[in-house]
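Page 47, continued from p. 46.
Same chain as before, 432 aa.
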Amino acid sequence: MKVDVLLGLQWGDEGKGKIVDVLTPDYDVIARFQGGPNAGHTIEFEGKKFILHTIPSGIFYPGKVNVIGNGVIVDPYILSLEIEKVRKQGFTVFDNLRISRKAHLILPSHRLLDAIYESAKGKDKIGSTLKGIGPTYTDKMGRNGLRIGDLHYADFYEKYEATKAGHLRIAASYDFDIAAVKIDGMSFAEYEQQWKDAIAVIKKIEHIDSEYFLNTMLQEGKKILAEGAQGSLLDIDFGSYPFVTSSNTTIAGVCSGLGIAPSNIGKVFGIVKAYCTRVGSGPFPTELSDDDGERMRRQGNEFGSTTGRPRRCGWLDIPALRYAVMLNGVTDIILTKADVLNNFETIKICTHYRKDDTSFDYMPFDITDIQPELIEVNGWQSDLNNRTWEQMPAAFTDYVRTIEQMSGVKISIISTGVDREQIVRKIENTLQ
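Result:
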């Protein structure tokens, strides 16, 4: 038995939460392998809408085990709120959720530092979600972090105070009014108290040695789906640095974030929007600042599920897609938000980049100031809902086949709306 993987191939917000929810019935275990509450996975069904930040997206199915892996970083306060929201809707959480003892904790002082660092960058802001992600991963790599397993030791708060004191010394070195910083609308002291209160909730989750747990599940023949957050183009090593997240969002993050051997990786599902979006700063070759971009934003409700910020929108970028496919060894593409382009008379696709009169079809070291070379295809100008693949308009099937041919990977599932039922399973493989 192998671990299948689902991850984003763009700059995040590709619709991973919905697709994990759709695929969960085929699996026994759903395991998040990186990121933290900077993620926002939206799931809609039966007229209800949920946004998950830390809990894996398979939590809404009884009997499915959901694991927060060691590669994930956890804010107890944010996770406790998330648990309460899910429970209020009548879903079981504590019976189905496990958390790795090796997962690192986001401390209130991490969030304080995040706000200070971002403010200090001025016009060079990276667009942080201000959830303490970067400072927490910094402490992890600097071997100064606190982990879920540390919660069970008598000296936890002694270690906590020592770590906080170090953070406050760093904060004091900036010309910044620390007392003015608000964390989720609260002062530092208020947030810290809420954070400490939430520890009791986190202790109700079963804490496990997730690497042993998951490998035992494999040996017992259980099916595991690894769930990624953010997108491949935000990877700390391979993304548009420095406008990236602080973890490995590509396939490498599965092995380090769950304790899974590379030989145990099975299918790799890559999630791709029918167009591109990006939140925050950073280069975006196909970005649109015209009516088409605004139409995408409006029709796709392109506002960050974590921050509420409007997403930047642009045409599908094939060189970037091929790059992500190569890095991840993608076996299947899942196309989302196809319905957002329903009313476009013509649609454009970036096939190459141009810089200094040179045309190329790969992702260079620096994608700043490169121009997209676009082709134009016909839009389908019709509703895709309640149709099988065979019933789809010809212009849409042509669009799908174009993506397949240019990416070199088959598209196996297409999302035509926000609800879990708005899914088309595509049997035909035009690459065979």
